[in-house]
Write a structure and sequence with these properties.
By secondary structure, the chain is α+β, with helices and mostly antiparallel strands. 34% of the residues lie in helices and 18% in strands. The strands form 2 sheets. The chain has a 4-stranded antiparallel sheet. Strands 1-2 form a two-stranded parallel sheet. The radius of gyration is 16 Å and the shape is globular. The two termini are 18 Å apart.
Length: 209
């Protein structure tokens, strides 16, 4: 039963292009004998080797995992696609998770990952956004160490569903933006109706531990 539910979290797609030669090459680089070590190395590679586009004022917009490898950077959504693609290429079920964060006078969605711990039968969430002063996300199996704590008083929210594929609103913003400056204006502020209808149907027992 669990294996059937996890199949979509091992699949390739246009954004999570796990079969792209560059993704396969990186997967071979991070793969270790134990899954947990592969997860850690893949996560730290995605977090640290590939900058968040807006942290370095990079204009190019990455959408897919291979785009991040080609450009050398991506925003949170693209970097979550990269981590998912690399881990799926290593045979490790990986999904996408989202938060609603507040910044300035608006809210915006933030993308991160959920990774399946096969030996423990549960998910952990990891945020490969990239660290900088004030942000210290880390690989952790026991206690989440994500980039952003949720501030309920600011209207922020954790969406606990685990998606096999990116949200339609996130993909639309990425694909329709020619530059990251344009992308910043188009980032979705919340889940859209299409997002809420997207298939992510996981048994509650399979939600993050």
């Amino acid at each position: 039963m669990v294996d059937g539910l996890l199949a979509p979290f091992l699949a390739a797609s246009a954004a999570i292009d796990r079969d792209h030669p560059a993704v396969q090459q990186l997967a071979g680089e991070v793969r270790r004998p134990r899954d947990i070590d592969t997860m850690r190395v893949a996560y730290e590679t995605a977090r640290d080797r590939y900058s968040h586009s807006m942290d370095i004022d990079a204009p190019a917009v990455s959408v897919s995992a291979s785009d991040v490898l080609r450009h050398g950077h991506g925003i949170c959504f693209a970097k979550s696609h990269l981590l998912a693609a690399v881990l799926r290429a290593c045979g490790i079920a990986t999904g996408l998770c989202y938060q609603k964060l507040a910044g300035g006078e608006r809210t915006y969605l933030h993308g991160l990952n959920a990774v399946w711990l096969r030996d423990q039968g549960r998910w952990i969430r990891l945020d490969a956004r990239g660290n900088k002063p004030g942000i210290d996300a880390r690989f952790s199996v026991d206690v989440e160490q994500l980039a952003f704590p949720i501030r309920l008083d600011r209207g922020e929210r954790d969406f606990l569903d685990i998606h096999a594929q990116p949200l339609p609103s996130a993909l639309a913003a990425l694909r329709s933006s020619r530059t990251t400056a344009e992308l910043a204006r188009r980032l979705p502020g919340d889940m859209s109706a299409a997002d809420r209808q997207a298939v992510c149907a996981l048994d509650p027992l399979l939600r993050p531990g």
